[in-house]
Amino acid sequence: MLLELDSDQRFWRDTLRDALAKECPATLVRSVAEDGADTGALWQTYLDMGWTELTDPAEAVELGLLVEGLGAATDPTPFLATMTQFNPLVGALADPKRSGAAVYDGVTAARTATGWVLDGTCRHVLDGDRADRLAVVTPAGVFVVTPEQVRARRVQVFDPVLHVAEVTLPGVEVDDAARVSGADVERARQVAQTGMALTMVGACQRVLDLVLEHVGSRKQFDVLIGSFQAVQHKAADMHVAIERARALAYFAALTLAEGDPRSRMAAMMAKAGAGECQSLVFKHGVQLFGAMGFTWENDVQFPLKRAKAGELMLGGAAEHRARITEESLAAARLGV
């Protein structure tokens, strides 16, 4: 397993960085947060560039690089939900021209003479209020439904440009054609966790970049504050935390790309590492900006909020650490 990016992947990463700087600048994110600006044109740009066609499991690292870049840019489109949550659940049914969302829990499926009845409510569904299709996970399998078949209500969350919804299926009747054949829910969850971890890593990296820009230009007593040892120590701690989280996340992406049996543990470690990273980066990032870090006018708020919101979705660091501990102890008892 190669643990470093090859030349093509590095070129892809740099290309993404340049494209996102042009297509998804902070001014666009602010306009979405303040004025509810439409993101349709940006989504269409992603479609035109072929970014939604990265559906091959072997392209997990390339997709990860893209997701990290979008996390840094605080992407306001349904790309993350579509590519890392919906598509892995539906497999060949994925449509690169349509967005999707995943309903992971809270819904049951009852067999009828003509098909199935889906009933229940799932809270905190990423992009559940604006996706073209929804993949609903039930004990009886995964079903694909349309927005017209559900009731979705967007709820307010910490990140002002993130769409999170409460989705209710009030006894929705579907036929057998709506049921996804051979859906691998466990692997899909691993892809979702890894994607969220990489989004958080990208957001944390953006925070650090803005911090370094600030401390390299801000003066106190006619001296750059970036020359103060206390400031340097905090910036170094942020860098170390980000590199650790990034390494864990890309290892998880590699295990998914290669079908490695360690992917379950790797995905949980990636999400836990990203959660711990954002906690430190959030604290130091705001502190190093001083009072400016608390103001609405400062763009550092957007990546900070994206990283924090990511921690609250798909299980936090404490939850995943507990699962990792339980599984490690169980494996040790079995002598695995």
From TrEMBL:
Cofactor(s) required, per the database record: FAD
Keywords: FAD, Flavoprotein, Oxidoreductase
Coiled coil feature spans: none
InterPro entries per the UniProt record, alphabetical: Acyl-CoA_Oxase/DH_mid-dom_sf (IPR046373), AcylCo_DH-like_C (IPR036250), AcylCo_DH/oxidase_C (IPR009075), AcylCoA_DH/ox_N_sf (IPR037069), AcylCoA_DH/oxidase_NM_dom_sf (IPR009100)
Highest rank taxon of the organism: Bacteria
Gene Ontology MF, one: acyl-CoA dehydrogenase activity
Keyword Nucleotide-binding among record annotations: no
Family per similarity comment: Belongs to the acyl-CoA dehydrogenase family.
Protein name per its UniProtKB record: Acyl-CoA dehydrogenase
Organism for this UniProt entry: Mycolicibacterium fallax
